[in-house]
Predict the 3D structure of the following.
Amino acid sequence: MFDLERTFVAVKPDGVKRGLIGEVIRRFEEKGYKVIGLKMLKVTREQAQAHYGEHEGKPFYERLVKYIQSGPIVGMVLEGHQAIAGARHMMGKTDPLDADMGTIRADYALVKEYNIVHGSDSVESAEREINIYFRPEEICDNWSNMAELVIECLRANEQII
Ligand code: IDP
Ligand code: MG
């Protein structure tokens, strides 16, 4: 069954500093996810705390909140069939050492503290995280991708013939 989902994915500050913005977006686009929101931004402390609230109290929490604010991130909303689990599958496990080869974290990162990308882990966290970083009017979901354009074109031609 078609299971259309939206997920929040971000190139974290280390990914931006490493020059991997394009590479990360390319992988998700080529996989087939539709980019319906995209922006570079500096994360505020409030956003960082809201984003990583589930980790509050853990030993690495303060460093994590500082790290996500240590430089600009590129946040995006991806849409597609089972986009939440699919995007996380492409990112690989949190610790690059555990991540399967071919995943973003295995291919580009050495340690879990600097693991290049973030991706929502459930429908609830996707909705929450999208709302932290995007206003509703910043989501552009009413455009046709190439496959849809071709279908529209074929339909229009049949009407002419
Ligand atoms: P995820 O990003 O794969 O969903 P989470 O467990 O949600 O992983 O952790 C959020 C982020 O916090 C990770 O991506 C990583 O950057 C950092 N992190 C997670 N666990 C540790 C740890 O044990 N030490 C240091 N940083 C960690
Ligand atoms: Mg997480």
Notes: Residues 60, 64, 94, 112-113, 115, 118, 121 surround inosine-5'-diphosphate (ligand 1) (CB under 6 Å). The longest strand covers residues 73-81. The chain has eight helices and four strands.
